[in-house]
Amino acid sequence: MSPALAPDVVLAAAAGNVDPGVVLQAGDWEFVYRNRRFLLYGAGVTVLLTLTSVVLGLLAGLPAGIVEVYGSGPVAAAVNRAGVLLRGTPLLVILAFTFFVNPINVGAFEAATLGLGLRSAAYQSQIFRGAIQSVGQGQMEAARSVGMSQFEAIRHVVVPQALRRSIPGFQNEFTIVLKDTSVAFFIGLAELLTRGFNLFTQPGQSTSVLEVILAVSAVYFVLTVLTNQGLELLGRRFAIPGTGGER
Amino acid sequence: MSDANALLEFEDVHQSYGEEKVLRGIDFEMERGDVEVVIGPSGSGKSTMLRCVNRLTEIDSGTIYLDGDPVTTPETDVNALRRRVGMVFQDFNLFAHRTALGNVTLGLREVLGHSKEEARAEAMSQLERVGLANQADSYPAELSGGQKQRVGIARALAMDPELMLFDEPTSALDPELIGEVLRVMRDLADDGMTMLCVTHEMGFAQEAASTISFLDEGSVVERGPPEQLFEAPEHERTGEFLERLTSLHGGQHG
Question: Which value does ipTM take for this structure?
Answer without folding.
Answer: 0.92
